[in-house]
Each structure stands twice: as C-alpha cells, then as structure tokens.
Amino acid sequence: MKETVVLGFSGGVDSSVSAMLLKRAGYRVHGVYLDTADAATRTETETAAEAMEIPLTVVPVRDALEEAVKKPFTEAYLSGRTPNPCILCNPAVKFRLLLETADAIGAEKIATGHYARAENGCILKGHPENDQSYMLCRLKREQAARLILPLGPYPKREVRVMAEEMGLSSAHKKDSMEICFIADNDHIGWLAARAVLPGPGPMYLNGKVVGEHNGICRYTVGQRIPGMFNERKAYVARIDAEQNALELALWEDLFHTSVTATDFSWLCDAPAQPFSATVRVRHTKWENPPCTVYPGENGTVRVECESPVRAPAPGQSMVLYDGERLLGGGFIV
Q1: Residue 69: which pLDDT band, with cuts at 50, 70 and 90?
Q2: By C-alpha distance, which of 245, 203, 193, 198 is closest to 78?
Q3: Which of 86, 89, 137, 291 is catalytic?
Q4: Is 89 labeled as catalytic in the residue annotation?
Q5: Known active-site residue 291
Q6: Which is catalytic among the residues 86, 122, 137, 180?
Q7: Is the pTM of this model over 0.90?
C-alpha cells in the first residue's frame, strides 16, 4: 500500500508540481487547503484537486490566522517593527494544521511547495535562485522531522517548465501575492481598516529635525527617504513609535556587525557555548556573512559578523545556518 503524504495544496504551480512529483515518487497525495473564507479561491482549488485526482481537505483558518498572524502583524507595525507574516504563520498555523490532518488520517509525512530541502529532520537551503529556507526558520523540530519538500532542488523557472510538460493548468498561473491576506500588497490600507494609525511626526538626522514623515507604519529600517540632505541620501535607521519619530542615517551608517535577536527557535539542540555560523537578517539571496554566535539567556542570541549587514530591522528575523543547514531564527531587536 502506498504511503500517504499530506500536502499543503492551493492549486498554484508550486503545490501542483509538488503533488505530481510526490505521486511519481510513489506517494498517495492528500491535499489540504487552508481556507481564509474566499469562496472563489476555494472553488478554484477544489476544481484543481479534482482534476489531479487528489482528495482534498478544506480547513478553515480565519480565526487561527487572526490570532497567530494578523493581530501580531498589526501590533508590530504600530510599535515600529517590521514583521514577516509567513514566518509567523508557518509553525503556528500552516504546518500545525498539516500535521493535525496527517494525524487524523494516519499519514506520517507532510509536504509543502517551499523552495528548500528537508533531509533526516533537517531543513537545508533550496536552489540558490529561489531559496525559501529563511521562511521556515521557526518550524518546530517535530514539524521538520515529518516534512518533505519536493521543489528544493529546482529553480522556479524549471518548475514552470515542468508544469507545462505535466499538462497542469497552473503552468501559467501568476504567483500568489506577497502577503496572502493583504490585497494588492497595500499593507497601509489593510492596517487602517483595523486600527487608528499614527499620524505625521518629525524626522531626525544627527539629532536635528530635517523634515516630517507621514506615519511610521509607512516605513521600515533601511528605507530611503525621498530628497537630499546636505547633498546626501538619507535612510531610516530607527523607528521610535513612542515619540512617533524617525531617526535617519547616511548609507554608511546603516551597516552593523553586531545583531541581537530574542525568542530564538532552534531546529537543533540549543547550544550553550559560542560557535561559528552564517547569518541572514532578511530574506535575501546574497547577504549571508560568517559570524560568531553567542547564545544568551531566555532565548536571546547575539551574533558578531565578519562583514557588516545592512540595516537589520526590528521585527524581522535573524536566521542562522551551518553551511546549508538551517539552524533556526529569532526576532531582531
């Protein structure tokens, strides 16, 4: 009898190709669609699953998404931090519900269409062109231990070619939006519908007021401010929510060798002594410098980088690697 794997399925190109690759590997695929109460998208996904002969479980996630993702996302922006909602969602909502469904139907393995690799309970970087391992930095070890990631070895362009060759209707389907619950990536409009947003306030450069911002929720650390300041470009260096102010800096002042994160989640045994690793402070392919890691108390981790990283933003994740292996991640402070 074939082994069943529970696949996060949306009907898009990534989950559809993942389903076909799993079938070719000898698995029986059972899809799970996480339903945010969008009837049209749900119907489209059900149609795609039926066409691929994949049984589909529809799991309502509106309430879970609100508590674990939307509410913390809102609170973070109002306090001057820049959160990554996918990193919040993966362990608390998506992978938790995949495992719950797997347990309910007696399946041992779960799978998603993330561009990373899963081997022997470890998460590894995916193909360099589109590696998404950063987004999985807060998975729990029991989630990683049961995970299959079929797309890890492939670049996205090759996956689209595979979808075409497989005759999948999703081959030319657009990629999903950057934040699944925010239409048109308009996070300001979304936030304004949920909370009273901070209004204009001062911008400081070298301790002097040099202008007025139009609301701290519109900015993140490292973002360029329009205009010139003494013939130089200026960037957001710090968001002071308490004073409703932005502190600006010149380009060369955005770079730091020391970064600290809290609430660190490890995908390995939590180390007690300093060790060498590499670090990412945002979801980029190019910035991954060597560093020395100093574990602290209560989930605090500090790194000292061999080369400086640009504009580590509070609320984003500091993610550590041992070579290709993902070690875990925490929230930058």
Answers
A1: very high
A2: 198
A3: 89
A4: yes
A5: no
A6: 180
A7: yes
